[in-house]
Design goal:
By secondary structure, this protein is an alpha/beta fold. Helix 3 crosses helix 4, helix 9 runs antiparallel to helix 10 and helix 10 packs across helix 11.
Amino acid sequence: MRWRHAAVHTGIAVIGLVFALTTEDVDRFYRWDEAVYASQFSAVVEPAGWGPQRSPGMAYLVAPVTLLSDSTFAVRLWLATLGSMTCALGFWIWSCSIGIAGVAGHGLFIASGLVVVYTTEIYPNIWLAYAGLITVGLAVGPWKSRRWMAALAMAACVAGAFRPAEAFVVVAVAAIALFAARRRDAVAPAFGTAIGYIVGVMPWVVRSFVSFGGPVDRLRGASNAAGPSGELRLRDALLMLDNPYGGQAGDEMLAPAVVLWLGGILFAACLAIFRTHSWKHPVTSALVAALALASPFFFKENPAPRFFLPTLALLCVAAGVGLVVRLPRRNVQVVAAIVIAVLAALQYTAYEGARYRDSLLRERLETAAAALVEVTSDVVGDCSIITNQAVPQMERASGCVAFRRANPREAVARGLHHEALAAGHRIFALARSEDETPEGWTTHAFEVDFFNRSGAIWFIAEISLSPQRCDTSRTWQRGSPGGPGCVGTTGETPVSEWS
């Protein structure tokens, strides 16, 4: 029976993979966070800035591709394929405990619009969902071998590498489930799970001491970067479920199809509670973990839909139990499957508005990147970029090293470009208005369309000074272009003055 379920899960995974690859633009431009993760182990660009809120798991996962290729298509194909296999494994593990309900839960999960979008995205949240499924599923399963304990520890290790804080919740629920079901026999697997989690979090801990002043300071910095809130922001979080591409919610109400889909999953999960009389039942652990993992989503000041994915995965497990228990007859199950398929299609098409807005944003970035590449195409040697627009993406597109995110004119006024100029770099600035471009620089204007600003003009500026020699004994005058002690011309007329 287990292997029959495995074949069914494989079929569902293939269907989900094909759907994600054919409906989403697999070659689309990286978002900010994606570009940061993809740059950490890259043969093309320098690592982008690494904030305290990030964990290395996602960078490790894409490293086999980014070290060999600069193709966004290759990275997204790798993630979608490996993710579909991992998701199938997670739900198959649950099928060993709850039977055909695991198959139903798998179908509900991969049919969700949020999952379709994030299957090809470089975000750790969906991978925490997979790791959480496997960790809790192994904890409540019928296994007792050493291989099972090793697999449980490995799953906890993977979860810790992707999202340490949320993974701690997953490991805690798994340990509680182990002691609830096995009592004295739970000591060894629970200990192994804890060790696995510690190993997975260790790179995060080491980086905390090296770059962030210790784990406590890093957690404080991550909290500030994530924008936590001390109050329940249920309404804001729910509205964001209508926009899987991130950003601000597009409307003041959820689309009816999205409400029916997600509300139906929640209702079916509640049915599982009412039909489960033993608190030791595996579905109880799934619901407890789902509730605990929902807090990072519902209590954030600026919730993002991807934070809901770990909760959704475990809710789908419970929903599968609710559907199978409440719909025991075959003809009723067939009707329910048809209704679910229709609702799945409707809730996915309800994201059309958000998809359109995202495509415009992506077009804006792609246009700017193409213009930057055209200007920098003749660069021999090193180059640098100053911009406050999508720094990691522009850095990756042009192959130049970016300064930290800053207004170009202000950055030049503060002399942030001096060191790069003295080293002989060619320096470029990317700005959305001419007021942001540094004075005295050669400016290239280009059009970029986004949202309701058709034909908006952006600017790429290059420093007019071509450094021929650098005399560090000279003193740079604030407000003049160029760098300290570097003398150069753009033809016959000097473009800078030195004292």
